[in-house]
Amino acid sequence: MTTPYDLAQWAADELRARTGVDHYDLAIVLGSGWREGAGALGTPHSVVPTGSLTGFVSPTVAGHDGKILSLKVGDKQVALLSGRVHLYEGNTAAQVAHPVRTLVAAGARQVLLTNACGGINPELGPGSVVVIKDHINLTATSPMEGDNPPAPLASRFVDLTDLYSRALRARVLEAAPQLTEGVYVGFRGPHYETPAEIAMARTMGGTLVGMSTVLEAIAARHLGAEVLGLSLVSNLAAGVAAQALSHLEVLAAGQEAAASLGALLAQLVPVL
């Protein structure tokens, strides 16, 4: 029987064959707004459409174009995933986790997950970048559902105590002390949360809300990768501010922040 891990290994082998990269050091998943900023890391030596690799599904969301860009940053071989997919597009948890599993199978032992999110704390307004220290998964699913992973992989009961690596967070906060930490609450979407749901998330300890990241983080940690999460606050969440929410607002916030996000990535990648 073909497993999600088989699909990831096949896709990783295809990626390495097409790029000539034997081993990646760092994988970065580019959320809304972060794609434009990633140009500050340098010019890719290879661009592979994700739709040409085994197991990948095509993104359907504006701002996600479905490519893996390979480049060197200092002595690190970096893979940039431009175009994540989400549960709300009709995908399974395994399909959402497949790109990250592929990049870890291609050697990446560190995974940086970026996203655009809603802010629960009014003091962290649009344009703020927050380091994810933990998450609350309200998607009602997990990439670990189903058959137990085959040997020699760890069991499905993965320990998430240090899901967002303390060591990586410490390096980031030392290099960029202006950043703060927060708890990301992952909803399924695609509708935005109600004010009552935001009040619930705040009561539970949440700082940020979004519709991505949590499943990718679990899958990467299961495979032994160190995980770091960075969230761009693109808007204040429902009930925190008076204005209505829209995806166009998210995209506009990303465009406005692109230069600063690029500078931040260029500053942080070398210290990971």
Describe this structure as you would to a colleague.
By secondary structure, the chain is an alpha/beta fold. It has a single domain (4-271), classed as Nucleoside phosphorylase domain (Rossmann fold). Helices cover 31% and strands 23% of the residues. It has seven helices and nine strands. The chain has a five-stranded mixed barrel with strand order 5-8-7-6-9. Helix 1 (4-19) packs across helix 3 and helix 3 (93-105) crosses helix 6 (214-222). The radius of gyration is 17 Å and the shape is globular. The relative contact order is 0.22.
Describe this protein with a few key phrases.
five-stranded mixed beta barrel; 9 strands; 272 residues; 7 helices; 31% helix; alpha/beta
Total DSSP helices? 7
Structural class label: alpha/beta
- Rg, Cα atoms, Å: 17 Å
Biggest sheet statistics: 5 strands, mixed, barrel
Helix-strand topology string: HEHEEEHEEHEHEHEH
The figure for the number of domains is: 1
The number of strands is 9
The CATH topology is given as Rossmann fold
CATH C-level class is: Alpha Beta
CATH architecture: 3-Layer(aba) Sandwich
Strand percentage, roughly?
15-25%
